[in-house]
Amino acid sequence: MLRRSKRIAEIEKRKNQPEDLIKKPKLSEELIQREIEELNANIVNLENNTRRTDDRCATEKTENDVLRLRIHVSEMSTRRAKHQTSEVKITLKKTTKEAGSLKKQIGEMLGELENFKDFDEAITKAKKETSSNRQKWMEEIEKIQEKQEEKNGGPIEWKMCEICAFEYSEEEKKVPRVLNCGHTICTECAGNFIMNTFNHHNTIRCPFDRQLTQLRSGGVYGLPRNCALVNL
Ligand SMILES: [Zn+2]
Ligand SMILES: [Zn+2]
C-alpha cells in the first residue's frame, strides 16, 4: 500500500514535472528582467553619481585655479614688497649718507660763522683804531700848521695833502682833487679811497666826513682839480 502510494506519488510528480520545467524558465525570465531593471537603475544611479562627481571635480578645478591665481598674485605682491623694501633700504642709506654730509657742512658753516664773528670783531677794532689814529694825525697836522702860521706871522694856505702829508704839485699823483663835499685830497689818496662793493661802485668815501662822491669816466683823473692849491 505504501509502495503503491509512493509510486503514485512519483507518477504524480512526473506528471507535474513538465509543468515545473515550463514554469521554471518563466520565473527565471522575470528574475532576469527584474535584475536587468535593477542593473539599469544602478547604471542610472552610477551615471548620476559620475555626473555629480564630474561637476564637483569641475567646481574644485575652478576653485583650484582661483586658489593658484591667488597664490601667484600673493607671490607677486611679496616679490614687489621685497623689491620696495630693498629700494627703501637703499634710499635710507643714501639719506643717512646725505644727512652725514649735511651735518658736516653745517659744522663747517658754523666754524666759518665763528671765524666771521672773529673777523667782524677784528674789523670793528681796526675801524676804531683807524679813527683814533686819524684823530691823532689831524691833531699833529693842526700843530704843524699852527707852528708854520706862527713862523710866517699869519695863516697860510695849506699846500699839503692831509692824508699822505706830501705837498701838492703838478705831478700826476700829487694833483689836488676836490670831492663833492668840498674836501681836497691828492689824486693818489683819492685812488686809495675808491669803493667797489655791492652797494657802491666806483665811489669815493671822503676820509674827513665820509660823504660819497660818484666817479665818472676817467676815474680819479676826472675829479675837478683844486687849482688854487697848485698855483700858489
Ligand atoms: Zn695824499
Ligand atoms: Zn669831505
CA radius of gyration is 65 Å
Give the integer mean of the pLDDT values.
Answer: 85
Order of helices and strands: HEEHEEEH
How helical, in percent, are the residues? 55-70%
Portion in beta strands: 5-15%
Strand order of the largest sheet: 3-4-5
Structural class per helix/strand content?
mainly alpha
In whole angstroms, how far apart are the ends?
A: 205 Å
Biggest sheet details = 3 strands, antiparallel
Total E-strand runs:
5
**Structural domain tally:** 2
Shape: rod-shaped
Bound molecules: zinc ion
Question: Which ranges are low-confidence, i.e. pLDDT below 50, for 5 or more consecutive residues?
Answer: none
Number of separate helices: 3
How are the SSEs ordered, and which strands pair?
Layout: H1 2-152, E1 176-178, E2 184-186, H2 187-192, E3 194-196, E4 201-205, E5 212-214, H3 227-231
Antiparallel strand pairs: 1-2, 3-4, 4-5
The chain binds zinc ion (2 copies).
Question: Could you explain the architecture of this structure?
Answer:
The chain is about 70% helix and about 5% strand. It has helices at about 1-150, 185-190, 225-230, and strands spanning about 175-180, 185, 195, 200-205, 210-215. With about 230 residues, it is mainly alpha-helical. It has a 3-stranded antiparallel sheet. It is rod-shaped, with a radius of gyration of 65 Å. The protein has 2 domains: about 65-155; about 155-230, Zinc/RING finger domain, C3HC4 (zinc finger) (Herpes Virus-1), CATH 3.30.40.10. Strand 1 (about 175-180) and strand 2 (about 185) form a beta hairpin. The longest helix has about 150 residues, at about 1-150. The protein binds zinc ion (2 copies).
